Amino acid sequence: DINPDEEEEKQKLITQVLELQNTLDDLSSRVDSVKEENLKLKSENQVLGQYIENLMAASSVFQSTSPKSKKK
């Protein structure tokens, strides 16, 4: 009992829904991959930060000056 115009409109809507579902799936995958990359970068930044802190601690340039001077 559906006329051809209604059937065509129904098919268009179904096609749009399927396209939107695919777009949503793609976006969800992208969000997941960006989250994963973000976690990796945070971890790398922590390692680099610790490395820099260790270098600064080992370098005399960054040592705090002591109130006791070593003048003779």
UniProtKB/TrEMBL annotation:
It is found in: Cytoplasm, Cytosol; Golgi apparatus membrane; Golgi apparatus, trans-Golgi network. Signal peptide: none annotated. GO terms for cellular component: cytosol; Golgi membrane; trans-Golgi network. It comes from the Eukaryota. Pfam families: DUF2205 (PF10224). Residues 3-44 form a coiled coil. Transmembrane segments: none annotated. Keywords: Coiled coil, Cytoplasm, Golgi apparatus, Membrane. It is a peripheral membrane protein. Positive regulator of amino acid starvation-induced autophagy. Belongs to the SCOC family. This is Short coiled-coil protein. It comes from Lottia gigantea. The lineage of its organism: Eukaryota, Metazoa, Spiralia, Lophotrochozoa, Mollusca.
